[in-house]
Amino acid sequence: MAVSSESLNASNAASRGAFIVMEGMDRAGKTTQVGKLRHTLEEQGHKVKTIRFPDRTTPMGTMIDGYLQSKTEMADHAIHLLFSANRWEKAAWIKEQISQGYMILCDRYYYSGMVYSAAKKNPALSLEWARTPDVGLPRPDRVIFLDLNAAEAEKRGGYGEEKYEKREMQENARELFLGLAGRGEESSDMVVIDAGHSVEQVASAIWDEVMKVVKAVETVPRRELSVVGAWTQVP
C-alpha cells in the first residue's frame, strides 16, 4: 500500500494515542483491514495495540460466544446488555493504553452493539434504548464503516456461520449503520468506505482517513480522549 510522502513519524508522537474503530457489515473485511492498518502504523514507528469485540476471552464473552453460535438463547434485552458489559470490561484498559501513547485499533465497538440489537426489529428495543448503556465509554477519534451490501457479503467465505449472518438481519443493520451519518456525535465520528473494492484499495482509503486523525491528535497533544455522550435530541 502506498504511503503519503508526508508519512507519520514517531518523533512527533502525541502525549496520547489515537482510538480508531473499524466497523462494518459481516464479511466486509474488518479484521483484515485492522491487521493491515496495524502493520502500516508500526512501520511508521507508532506503538499499536488491537482489540476485538465481543472479547470472547472473558466470562461474559464466553456467554456471548455461545449465543452467537446458536448454542444458547437469551432475551434480546439481556444479550444486548451482556454485549455492552463486555465493552465496559475493557473501558479502563483502553483509556490506560491510550494515555501511554498506544494507538488502539478496535474491531467492532458500540456501533455494532446498538445497530445489531435494533436490527432485530423488537418494538421494545429501539436504537436509542440500545445506545444508552454505552454512554460514558471511551469515544473513538474515528470510526471507519466498511460498507458492503448483503448480496455481496454472501459471496464471501464463511458467511452464515453465526447468528446474525442472515440476509434480512444484515440489510436491517446496514440501513441503521448508514443512518448514523445523521445522528448525534456519530455523524462526525464515522466515515463510510466502500468495502466492495480490492483489499488494497480499501486499505488505501482507510489510511487516508487514519492519517488525518493521527496528525490531529499529534498537533493537540494535551487533548483528552472523549467519552460517548447521550443523544440530546431524537428526530
TrEMBL record:
GO terms for cellular component: cytosol; nucleus. Keywords: ATP-binding, Kinase, Nucleotide biosynthesis, Nucleotide-binding, Transferase. Pathway: Pyrimidine metabolism; dTTP biosynthesis. InterPro entries: P-loop_NTPase (IPR027417), Thymidylate_kin-like_dom (IPR039430), Thymidylate_kin_CS (IPR018095), Thymidylate_kinase (IPR018094). Its EC number is 2.7.4.9. One of its GO terms (molecular function) is dTMP kinase activity. GO terms for biological process: dTDP biosynthetic process; dTTP biosynthetic process; dUDP biosynthetic process. Signal peptide: none annotated. Residues 23-206 form the Thymidylate kinase-like domain. Gene3D superfamilies: P-loop containing nucleotide triphosphate hydrolases. Belongs to the thymidylate kinase family. This is Thymidylate kinase. It comes from Amylocarpus encephaloides.
